[in-house]
Design brief:
CATH architecture: 3-Layer(aba) Sandwich
Number of helices: 7
Shape: globular
Order of helices and strands: EHEHEHEHEHEHHE
Strand content: 5-15%
Structural class: alpha/beta
Helix content: 40-55%
CATH topology: Rossmann fold
Bound molecules: nicotinamide-adenine-dinucleotide
Strand order of the largest sheet: 3-2-1-4-5-6-7
CATH class: Alpha Beta
Radius of gyration: 18 Å
Number of strands: 7
Length: 260
């Protein structure tokens, strides 16, 4: 098991789902964790689940807002110490066809998923650079960065943007020994508190997961632990697909020719 004792880990969108799973895994590995989310009740629940809140700190914040993100990072550092690991996770995935989509719907996804990742990474990176002790930054993209689906033009575009942003940031921070990597989860089962997906969508998608089941927040969290660990010292600017093999192709297809 990887040990993060005395490490400070900051996670956005950590009140539920994958973000909470990541915060919980780092906490279990000994880290001090800062959880940011724009839903106060979710943060209260999350804090209670983390051994009653020891070594954990929550802050109501909105990743779309520069001041809110800056305040979160500053408050986390004051409470827990300098940030070693930042995970830009908060994201939303509503659906709308391009023909029907309002500008507001487009902007909300872009502001949360892309601007939010930029603001979170920028604020954390500035602190890491000022401290001069390196660091680890992880963005949560999605298999949607390279695999489109109807109704998700804004989402897919935002995640493709997250991946390219991650690569460029990795280049810019390499000489400061700050690793920057993306995780691209496939389908992950989360409580439908903010982002709900239909049963029909899940059943259809599961047929294209060679591993035979959707992912869990713990599956994604273990990838985050690896990327934040010394094992990933030379890994930067990459996209780690954690999806049970669903990005390999079309697993639901039969053999195209008879055998022999
Ligand atoms: N669940 C999946 O199948 C899946 C697959 C691929 C990628 N992802 C990505 O993983 C990330 C987490 O998704 P999830 O499935 O855990 O969702 P979730 O809805 O379970 O959790 C997202 C959390 O982010 C918070 N949040 C949303 N907007 C925010 C904002 N503006 N500021 C602060 N907090 C905000 C929500 O309150 C919520 O607690 C997202 O970036 C999503 O795109 C999810």
């Amino acid at each position: 098991m990887l040990d993060f004792t005395d490490r400070v880990v900051l996670v956005t969108g950590a009140g539920a789902g994958i973000g909470f799973g990541i915060a919980r895994a780092f906490h279990a590995a000994g880290a001090r964790v800062a959880l940011g989310d724009f839903r106060a009740p979710a943060l209260a629940r999350a804090l209670a689940e983390l051994a009653g809140g020891a070594r954990a700190f929550t802050h109501v914040m909105d990743v779309r807002d520069e001041k809110s993100v800056g305040d979160f990072v500053a408050a986390a550092e004051q409470e827990l110490g300098p940030v070693d690991v930042a995970v830009a996770n908060a994201g939303i995935y509503p659906n709308a066809a391009v023909l029907d989509m309002t500008v507001e719907e487009w902007d909300r996804v872009m502001e949360t998923n892309l601007r939010g990742v930029f603001l979170t990474c920028q604020a954390a990176a500035r602190r890491m650079v000022a401290r001069g002790a390196g660091g680890k930054i992880i963005t949560i993209a999605s298999g949607a960065y390279q695999s489109g689906r109807r109704g998700a033009s804004h989402y897919c575009a935002s995640k493709a943007g997250v991946v390219m942003f991650t690569k460029v940031l990795a280049m810019e921070l390499a000489d400061r020994h700050i690793n920057v990597n993306a995780i691209a989860p496939g389908l992950v089962t989360v409580d439908p508190e903010v982002n709900a997906v239909s049963g029909e969508y899940v059943q259809t998608l599961v047929k294209n997961i060679p591993w035979g089941r959707p992912g869990t927040p713990d599956d994604i969290a273990r990838a985050a632990l690896y990327l934040a660990s010394p094992l990933a010292e030379y890994v930067t600017g990459t996209v780690l697909q954690v999806d049970g093999g669903s990005s390999t192709g079309r697993t639901y297809l039969p053999f195209s020719t008879p055998r022999g």
